[in-house]
Amino acid sequence: MTTEKKPIQFTHVYTVxxxxxxxxxxxxxxxxxxPVKCHxxxxxxxxxxxxxxxxxxxxxxxxxxxxxxxxxxxxxVYVQTCEVQNQKFxxxxxxxxxxxxxxx
Length: 104
Description:
Elements: E1 14-18, E2 27-31, E3 34-35, E4 44-47, E5 53-56, E6 67-72, E7 75-80, E8 87-90
Antiparallel strand pairs: 1-2, 2-3, 4-5, 6-7, 7-8
């Protein structure tokens, strides 16, 4: 009996969007339509309506020196180098020549 290991298939879609809150030309990593939170930064606790407090998270953007956008063959990848092992995400909205303009 042979058991062949198959690679894990992920179903998440990663894209990048403009992030002009910090500086121009920064890109924000988006997973399934939601901004990705930075897991290294502690959230800021700010008051909300009704007297409660809510956490506000920093987004994972290329404003951080540990976030990189690059090319791997014909694919655009977003790389997080903030951990011991780099994390690489294939960017879905950069598959055509027209959509590559979002990266540059």
